[in-house]
Amino acid sequence: MTFAEAAAAIVAAGRRMDAQGWVPATAGNFSARLADGTIAVTRSGCHKGFLGTDDVIRVDAAGAPLDPGARPSYETLLHCGIYRRFPGAGAVLHGHSVANTVLSRRAGSAIRLAGYELLKAFPGGPTHDTAADLPVVDNDQDIARMQAGLDALWDATPDAPPGYLIRCHGVYVWGADMDAALMRLEALEFMLLCELEDGRRTP
Ligand SMILES: CSCCC(=O)C(=O)COP(=O)(O)O
Ligand SMILES: [Zn+2]
């Protein structure tokens, strides 16, 4: 994928996520892996529903901007951590929805999603009759330290699903390309909203 293609896909993903209310204020960040191993990632601090292609920045695999004056997402190292660990990851999405934020506040170290038809959007075969334990990690303003915790988690759980929640913060999801990442994110947010609604009805 070229930088221009990645930037266009990132801008479109931002509009789509904003339409769902998943990137309030300046929340969220998105990226795509480029053919040469560098990464296209959103600029820090802008509204992700109104991105232009000049709000997409190129960084190296360690997160350093190729243009030293550019300010990539504060959470760029989490994107780099996903690309480093998962060679099949081509795009990463991060959003702050009500469902993922509320559920992560109540959760322990994982949220079990079981029996949903939409689990077919995740690895594990073409069946709903399965479960995914979505990791929940504590929020930390030290992003490198948070990534070190995620690396330890993935070492211990190599079959973890392609996503995780950060407590009281948001979700990260990835896929082979932007369309696959968006499909997973939509499936995951749907299931999380079901869990939230279910919890509201349960006394
Ligand atoms: C107001 S949102 C706080 C930062 C954050 O969690 C986020 O997703 C956006 O940060 P970025 O640096 O990528 O704009
Ligand atoms: Zn965030």
Automatic annotation (TrEMBL):
Residues 8-196 form the Class II aldolase/adducin N-terminal domain. Catalyzes the dehydration of methylthioribulose-1-phosphate (MTRu-1-P) into 2,3-diketo-5-methylthiopentyl-1-phosphate (DK-MTP-1-P). It comes from Roseomonas fluvialis. The keyword Transcription does not apply. This is Methylthioribulose-1-phosphate dehydratase. The keyword Metal-binding applies. SMART domains: Aldolase_II. Binds 1 zinc ion per subunit. Gene3D superfamilies: Class II aldolase/adducin N-terminal domain. Its EC number is 4.2.1.109. It is an enzyme of class 4 (lyase). It catalyses: 5-(methylsulfanyl)-D-ribulose 1-phosphate = 5-methylsulfanyl-2,3-dioxopentyl phosphate + H2O. InterPro entries: Aldolase_class_II_sugar_metab, Aldolase_II/adducin_N, Aldolase_II/adducin_N_sf, MethylthioRu-1-P_deHdtase_MtnB. Coiled coil: none annotated. Zn(2+) binds at residues 94, 96.
